[in-house]
Amino acid sequence: MQKVHWAERIAVDPEIHHGEPCIRGTRIPVAVVLGGLAEGLTPEAVLHEYPALTAEDIQACLAYAAEMNQQFS
């Protein structure tokens, strides 16, 4: 799988979902996707629960989380 640039798929807009990072074009927060994965859902299960998402959106969430974590390291 090629590298996904999270900024192309994740938006932070104060007018959408109280400014939480969301998948661009949706109101699905990054935290919901990451939370599902952390609880043991497979990426396929997340895609089933949120059909508006793509596999690249899930990769973008992971890349976003990794970059945000590096800022606090």
What would you note in describing this structure?
This protein is mainly alpha-helical. It has one domain (6-71): Winged helix-like DNA-binding domain superfamily/Winged helix DNA-binding domain (Arc Repressor Mutant, subunit A, Orthogonal Bundle). It is built from 3 helices and 2 strands. It has helices at residues 30-38, 43-49, 55-71; strands spanning 10-11, 22-23. The chain has a two-stranded antiparallel sheet. The longest helix has 17 residues, at 55-71. The protein is globular, with a radius of gyration of 12 Å. The relative contact order is 0.20.
Largest sheet: 2 strands, antiparallel
| Low-pLDDT sequence parts | none
Beta-strand content? 5-15%
Q: Can you give the mean pLDDT?
A: 93
Domain count: the total is 1
What value does the Rg take, in angstroms? Answer: 12 Å
Under CATH, the topology is which? Arc Repressor Mutant, subunit A
